[in-house]
């Protein structure tokens, strides 16, 4: 439970990074392209060139153009794409398989979607869990590479709105969680069983 606000904030930052630069790259059984939607505008971008950029710094002509247009600092974008969050696969699985986890996944599923806008919650959960399976770490690039659809559709307007909402409530939520920590310990000491997602 204590990881959810941090993960939500991190995912929000990652989504904005993707929305800002507009590119990504992917392995065999995962997303090959990202379709960015902004109102009626659509832009289709490869997942492979972003992975190459994240790993080597090499910019394709398309990526270089987007970085210039959005006035993005390439090294900062690379850092955000590859910056890892340490979280065990089992902890993340617990955090995402409860009511609060479903709410988070549903909210993210409004902006990061499958091509037919069905099964967004399951696709995101699968991508997140698969991304931590090997090393108990999570990066935005891994999430994209593990997304179980040929395309990822990103609603940029909604991503920006959602990120702003997450940013607005993140600090109060974090403060509440920090204050509830001692209460959680007292309840545990008194033998009161807590649901898994509160442990």
Characterization of the model:
The protein has helices at residues 4-21, 47-56, 61-69, 74-82, 89-96, 99-109, 120-133, 140-146, 156-189; strands spanning 33-38, 41-46, 85-86, 112-113, 137-138, 151-155. The chain has 199 residues and is of the alpha+beta class. The protein has one domain (4-198). It has a 4-stranded mixed beta sheet with strand order 2-1-6-4. Strands 3-5 form a two-stranded antiparallel sheet. α5 runs antiparallel to α7 (120-133), α6 (99-109) crosses α7 (120-133) and α7 packs across α8 (140-146). The protein is elongated.
Concise structural overview:
The chain is of the alpha+beta class.
What is the count of DSSP helices, taking H or I runs of 4+ residues? 9
Gyration radius, rounded = 18 Å
Q: Helix-strand pattern, N to C? A: HEEHHHEHHEHEHEH
The overall strand count is: 6
Low-confidence stretches: 1-5, 20-28
How do the strands of the widest beta sheet line up side by side?
2-1-6-4
Q: Residue share in helices?
A: 55-70%
Number of domains: 1
Rough outline: elongated
Detail the topology: elements first, then pairings.
Blueprint: H1 4-21, E1 33-38, E2 41-46, H2 47-56, H3 61-69, H4 74-82, E3 85-86, H5 89-96, H6 99-109, E4 112-113, H7 120-133, E5 137-138, H8 140-146, E6 151-155, H9 156-189
Parallel strand pairs: 1-6
Antiparallel strand pairs: 1-2, 3-5, 4-6
Sum up the structure in keywords.
199 residues; alpha+beta; 4-stranded mixed sheet; disordered N terminus
């Amino acid at each position: 439970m204590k990881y959810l606000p941090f993960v939500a904030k991190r995912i929000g930052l990652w989504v904005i990074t993707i929305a800002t630069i507009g590119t990504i790259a992917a392995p065999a059984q995962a997303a090959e392209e990202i379709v960015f939607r902004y109102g009626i505008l659509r832009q289709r971008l490869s997942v492979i060139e972003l992975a190459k950029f994240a790993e080597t710094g090499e910019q394709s002509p398309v990526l270089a153009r987007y970085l210039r247009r959005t006035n993005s600092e390439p090294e900062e974008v690379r850092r955000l794409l590859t910056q890892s969050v340490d979280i065990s696969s089992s902890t993340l699985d617990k955090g995402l398989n409860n009511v609060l986890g479903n709410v988070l996944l549903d909210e993210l599923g409004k902006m990061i979607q499958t091509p037919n806008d069905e099964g967004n919650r399951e696709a995101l959960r699968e991508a997140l869990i698969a991304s931590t399976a090997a090393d108990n770490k999570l990066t935005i690039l891994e999430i994209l590479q593990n997304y179980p659809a040929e395309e990822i559709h990103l609603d940029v307007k909604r991503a920006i709105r959602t990120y702003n909402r997450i940013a607005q409530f993140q600090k109060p939520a974090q403060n509440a969680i920090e204050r509830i920590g001692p209460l959680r310990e007292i309840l545990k000491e008194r033998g009161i069983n807590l649901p898994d997602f509160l442990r």
